[in-house]
Protein backbone atom coordinates (compact mmCIF):
# COMPACT_ATOMS: atom_id res chain seq x y z
CA UNK A 1 0.00 0.00 0.00
CA UNK A 2 2.88 2.33 0.80
CA UNK A 3 4.25 1.81 -2.69
CA UNK A 4 0.98 3.00 -4.26
CA UNK A 5 0.53 6.12 -2.09
CA UNK A 6 3.85 7.70 -3.04
CA UNK A 7 3.25 7.68 -6.82
CA UNK A 8 -0.35 8.81 -6.29
CA UNK A 9 0.82 11.73 -4.12
CA UNK A 10 3.41 12.70 -6.75
CA UNK A 11 0.78 12.44 -9.48
CA UNK A 12 -1.62 14.64 -7.49
CA UNK A 13 1.13 17.25 -6.93
CA UNK A 14 1.96 17.21 -10.62
CA UNK A 15 -1.73 17.66 -11.43
CA UNK A 16 -1.98 20.70 -9.14
CA UNK A 17 1.14 22.28 -10.63
CA UNK A 18 0.02 21.86 -14.23
CA UNK A 19 -3.50 23.06 -13.42
CA UNK A 20 -2.12 26.50 -12.49
CA UNK A 21 -2.03 27.75 -16.03
CA UNK A 22 -2.35 31.39 -16.98
CA UNK A 23 -5.82 31.97 -18.41
CA UNK A 24 -6.60 34.59 -21.01
CA UNK A 25 -8.33 37.73 -19.83
CA UNK A 26 -12.04 37.43 -20.69
CA UNK A 27 -12.45 41.20 -20.99
CA UNK A 28 -11.87 43.34 -24.05
CA UNK A 29 -8.28 44.61 -24.09
CA UNK A 30 -8.24 48.33 -23.43
CA UNK A 31 -5.68 50.99 -23.94
CA UNK A 32 -5.01 53.61 -21.30
CA UNK A 33 -6.88 56.82 -22.08
CA UNK A 34 -4.52 59.41 -23.54
CA UNK A 35 -6.49 62.29 -22.05
CA UNK A 36 -8.77 63.26 -19.22
CA UNK A 37 -11.99 64.83 -20.51
CA UNK A 38 -13.88 66.90 -17.95
CA UNK A 39 -17.53 67.69 -18.63
CA UNK A 40 -18.11 71.27 -17.50
CA UNK A 41 -21.48 72.21 -15.91
CA UNK A 42 -22.13 68.61 -14.88
CA UNK A 43 -23.88 67.92 -11.61
CA UNK A 44 -21.67 68.58 -8.55
CA UNK A 45 -18.69 66.20 -8.39
CA UNK A 46 -19.77 64.12 -11.39
CA UNK A 47 -17.67 65.93 -14.00
CA UNK A 48 -15.18 63.04 -13.92
CA UNK A 49 -17.79 60.30 -13.39
CA UNK A 50 -18.37 57.46 -15.82
CA UNK A 51 -21.22 59.27 -17.52
CA UNK A 52 -21.74 62.78 -16.16
CA UNK A 53 -25.09 64.45 -16.66
CA UNK A 54 -25.59 68.14 -17.43
CA UNK A 55 -29.05 69.33 -16.36
CA UNK A 56 -30.22 72.25 -18.52
CA UNK A 57 -33.21 74.53 -18.95
CA UNK A 58 -35.48 73.78 -21.92
CA UNK A 59 -36.15 77.45 -22.66
CA UNK A 60 -32.57 78.40 -23.53
CA UNK A 61 -29.98 77.15 -26.03
CA UNK A 62 -27.69 74.52 -24.64
CA UNK A 63 -23.96 75.24 -24.14
CA UNK A 64 -22.08 71.94 -24.13
CA UNK A 65 -18.61 72.47 -22.71
CA UNK A 66 -15.62 70.20 -22.08
CA UNK A 67 -12.02 70.59 -20.94
CA UNK A 68 -9.37 68.19 -22.24
CA UNK A 69 -6.31 67.56 -20.07
CA UNK A 70 -3.27 65.41 -20.74
CA UNK A 71 -1.73 63.75 -17.71
CA UNK A 72 2.03 64.19 -17.26
CA UNK A 73 3.11 61.25 -15.11
CA UNK A 74 6.86 61.88 -15.05
CA UNK A 75 6.79 62.75 -11.32
CA UNK A 76 4.34 60.05 -10.30
CA UNK A 77 6.70 58.58 -7.70
CA UNK A 78 7.57 61.94 -6.13
CA UNK A 79 4.85 62.71 -3.58
CA UNK A 80 5.86 66.38 -3.45
CA UNK A 81 5.13 66.90 -7.16
CA UNK A 82 2.62 64.27 -8.29
CA UNK A 83 0.81 64.14 -11.63
CA UNK A 84 0.33 67.30 -13.69
CA UNK A 85 -2.81 68.00 -15.69
CA UNK A 86 -1.80 69.90 -18.82
CA UNK A 87 -4.48 71.49 -21.05
CA UNK A 88 -4.51 70.16 -24.63
CA UNK A 89 -4.81 73.05 -27.12
CA UNK A 90 -5.79 72.75 -30.81
CA UNK A 91 -7.37 69.31 -30.42
CA UNK A 92 -10.14 68.43 -32.86
CA UNK A 93 -13.12 66.93 -30.99
CA UNK A 94 -16.40 65.65 -32.43
CA UNK A 95 -19.73 65.61 -30.62
CA UNK A 96 -21.98 62.68 -31.51
CA UNK A 97 -25.23 61.21 -30.32
CA UNK A 98 -24.93 57.61 -29.19
CA UNK A 99 -26.58 56.42 -32.40
CA UNK A 100 -23.67 57.96 -34.36
CA UNK A 101 -25.44 61.11 -35.54
CA UNK A 102 -22.91 63.96 -35.77
CA UNK A 103 -23.95 67.04 -33.81
CA UNK A 104 -20.88 69.21 -34.21
CA UNK A 105 -17.15 69.53 -34.23
CA UNK A 106 -14.70 71.99 -32.77
CA UNK A 107 -11.14 72.67 -31.67
CA UNK A 108 -10.00 73.23 -28.10
CA UNK A 109 -8.57 76.62 -27.19
CA UNK A 110 -5.33 77.38 -25.31
CA UNK A 111 -6.89 76.34 -21.99
CA UNK A 112 -8.07 73.02 -23.44
CA UNK A 113 -11.76 73.95 -23.41
CA UNK A 114 -14.33 73.56 -26.16
CA UNK A 115 -17.86 74.95 -26.17
CA UNK A 116 -20.54 73.92 -28.65
CA UNK A 117 -23.90 75.70 -28.54
CA UNK A 118 -26.90 73.70 -29.69
CA UNK A 119 -30.67 74.04 -29.56
CA UNK A 120 -32.85 71.26 -28.22
CA UNK A 121 -34.28 70.77 -31.73
CA UNK A 122 -30.76 70.18 -33.10
CA UNK A 123 -30.36 67.44 -30.51
CA UNK A 124 -33.54 65.82 -31.84
CA UNK A 125 -35.68 66.48 -28.80
CA UNK A 126 -39.44 66.41 -29.28
CA UNK A 127 -41.96 67.88 -26.82
CA UNK A 128 -43.61 65.55 -24.32
CA UNK A 129 -46.78 67.61 -24.02
CA UNK A 130 -49.19 69.33 -26.38
CA UNK A 131 -49.85 72.23 -24.00
CA UNK A 132 -47.23 74.97 -24.75
CA UNK A 133 -47.16 76.61 -21.27
CA UNK A 134 -45.84 73.41 -19.72
CA UNK A 135 -42.15 72.62 -19.73
CA UNK A 136 -42.09 70.60 -22.93
CA UNK A 137 -39.09 68.43 -22.47
CA UNK A 138 -38.83 67.95 -18.70
CA UNK A 139 -37.15 64.69 -17.76
CA UNK A 140 -35.88 63.75 -21.21
CA UNK A 141 -32.25 62.65 -21.53
CA UNK A 142 -29.99 62.77 -24.57
CA UNK A 143 -26.89 60.58 -24.48
CA UNK A 144 -23.78 62.05 -26.09
CA UNK A 145 -20.21 61.04 -26.85
CA UNK A 146 -17.15 63.22 -27.39
CA UNK A 147 -14.48 61.67 -29.63
CA UNK A 148 -10.99 62.69 -30.67
CA UNK A 149 -7.42 61.46 -30.90
CA UNK A 150 -4.26 62.44 -29.03
CA UNK A 151 -0.84 61.20 -30.19
CA UNK A 152 -2.53 58.73 -32.52
CA UNK A 153 -4.63 57.18 -29.74
CA UNK A 154 -8.38 57.63 -30.14
CA UNK A 155 -10.59 58.36 -27.14
CA UNK A 156 -14.32 58.57 -26.48
CA UNK A 157 -15.95 60.26 -23.49
CA UNK A 158 -19.61 59.64 -22.70
CA UNK A 159 -21.95 62.20 -21.18
CA UNK A 160 -25.62 63.05 -21.17
CA UNK A 161 -27.85 66.10 -21.12
CA UNK A 162 -31.16 66.17 -19.27
CA UNK A 163 -33.94 68.72 -19.20
CA UNK A 164 -34.82 70.23 -15.83
TrEMBL record:
In the UniProt record, the signal sequence range is: 1-23
Q: Keyword set for this entry?
A: Signal
Top-level taxonomic group: Bacteria
Question: What is the protein name for this chain?
Answer: Uncharacterized protein
